[in-house]
Amino acid sequence: MAANIPLFSLQRTTWVEPLAADRLLSVCRLRDEQTVAEVRLTAALPGLEILELGAEFEFARLRPPADLKERLARLVGVRVGSGMLKIIPGLIGPEEGCRQPIYMVEECCHGIILSLTRKVLLAAPDDPEGRFTFYSGLVEKSIRLYDRCAAYAAGTPLVAAYEAGLRRSQGESE
Fold first, then answer.
1. What is the pLDDT of residues 78-107, one digit of tens each?
2. Quick one: what percent of the chain has pLDDT higher than 70?
3. What kind and span of H or E run contains 103?
4. CB-based contacts of 16, cutoff 8 Å, min separation 6
5. Contacts from 137-145 at CB under 8 Å and sequence distance 24+?
6. For the chain, domain boundaries
7. How many other β-carbons are positioned within 10 Å of the β-carbon of residue 29?
8. How far apart are CA 62 and CA 64, in angstroms?
């Protein structure tokens, strides 16, 4: 009998922890056959200004730019919040080697946002129908949730109403 050996394995995790009453640390780690990487972002509360940003990347095939540390330093002072999905790539750069660092910085920012919305999530109703309505309404209130986790992935039930609204606004029929 042949052994079950995985041909590809991917582990990506993001977590947020308080460093002090006025600071949060968000860490995104990635490990697969080609990459071992970590991005660490420290943000100030309550304004969510990025105070520090560091990264370590080991790529077997695709390397980030040699000046990645300097590019990440451009984000110090930027606020985690609206507009960041345009600001981050604009400051880090368009090169192919920047795609993974950009994604991981975005994940750190989303982790901070989601950690601060925990109290909102705990306010969901107890009944299943009410919970579904509550959670599906969150993506319409904060589009940053869309396609950022399995529950809010494109095509899932929780985003169906949001996607229908997008199609209507773009003049598409349902």
1. 999 878 889 999 999 988 889 999 999 999
2. 95
3. helix 99-116
4. 24, 25, 26, 27, 111, 112, 114, 115
5. 140/165, 142/113, 142/117, 144/85, 144/110, 144/113, 145/114
6. 10-116, 120-169
7. 17
8. 7
Q: Where are the extended beta strands (E) located within the chain? A: 10-20, 23-32, 35-44, 49-59
144: number of Cβ within 10 Å = 19
103-124 pLDDT, tens digit each:
999 999 989 988 887 778 888 8
User: What's the CATH code, domain 10-116?
Assistant: 3.30.390
The band of 6, judged by pLDDT with boundaries at 50, 70 and 90, is: low
- How many degrees, rounded to 5, is the angle at CA 30 between CA 26 and CA 34? 155
